[in-house]
Amino acid sequence: MPKILGESLAAHRQQVRAKVFDAVRSLLYTRGFDGITLSGVASEAGVGRSAIYNHFPDREALLVAFVEHETAEYVTRLHSELASVTDPVEALAMFARMHVEVMIGRHTPPGQQMDAVLSPEAYARMAEHVEPITTQLREILTAGISAGQMAGEDVDALVRMIMAALAAAGEVEPAVRFVLRSTGVRLT
């Protein structure tokens, strides 16, 4: 009988998932998705292979769950940080700063692009989890345009361009300045 972690089965499942996601994070950014196996994740996490299969039927399901988890944590942090910010320019700078810091800390894994190794359904499911992030950006831009602090551009086009720029950024502050300028904010 495997040892139960935590005080309940729910706590046990949560702790196993946390260990598995830590292992996936480590392996994903050192080996890439191509180099991940469920048995390798189990070994890295220090759990039995059957524990992995109890949570995830295959590698693809594991990766999708991992991305869902990481995105949910980021969105929670983003909402918390932005909750007290009322100035749209300050909010946009904070959004850009946080996003670039996350992207730099979690660089693109080695190996093939995710859309090449995942089924279209799994890739679409992963992409859905970006929506709360882009919704937050859309709200910031709309508030900035309404307040006259940002140029009245097509908000959806701005969201796509800003997200692309932030994903490609290698340094935080130049990216923040670029995003602010791209929305018509005059920097002093």
Essential attributes:
single chain, Arc Repressor Mutant, subunit A, 188 residues, 10 helices, 0% strand, 2 domains, Tetracycline Repressor, domain 2, mainly alpha
Radius of gyration computed on alpha carbons? 19 Å
**Overall average residue pLDDT:** 86
- Class per helix and strand makeup: mainly alpha
The separation of the N and C termini measures 65 Å
> Which quaternary structure do these chains form?
single chain
**Total beta strands:** 0
Q: Helix and strand string, N-terminal first?
A: HHHHHHHHHH
What ranges have pLDDT less than 50 throughout 5 or more consecutive residues? none
Pfam families: TetR_C_24, TetR_N
Protein name: TetR/AcrR family transcriptional regulator
Domain HTH tetR-type: 14-74
DNA-binding region: 37-56
In short:
InterPro entries: Homeodomain-like_sf, HTH-type_TetR-like_transc_reg, HTH_TetR, KstR2_TetR_C, Tet_transcr_reg_TetR-rel_C_sf. The protein folds into 2 domains: 56 residues, Orthogonal Bundle (Arc Repressor Mutant, subunit A), CATH 1.10.10.60; 125 residues, Orthogonal Bundle (Tetracycline Repressor, domain 2). With 188 residues, the chain is mainly α.
Topology:
Layout (H helix, E strand, L loop, with lengths): L8 H23 L6 H8 L3 H7 L3 H24 L5 H18 L8 H4 L2 H9 L2 H16 L8 H14 L3 H11 L6
Helix pairs in contact: 1-2, 2-3, 4-5, 4-7, 5-8, 5-10, 8-9, 9-10
Organism: Kibdelosporangium lantanae
Protein name: TetR/AcrR family transcriptional regulator
InterPro entries: Homeodomain-like_sf (IPR009057), HTH-type_TetR-like_transc_reg (IPR050109), HTH_TetR (IPR001647), KstR2_TetR_C (IPR041490), Tet_transcr_reg_TetR-rel_C_sf (IPR036271)
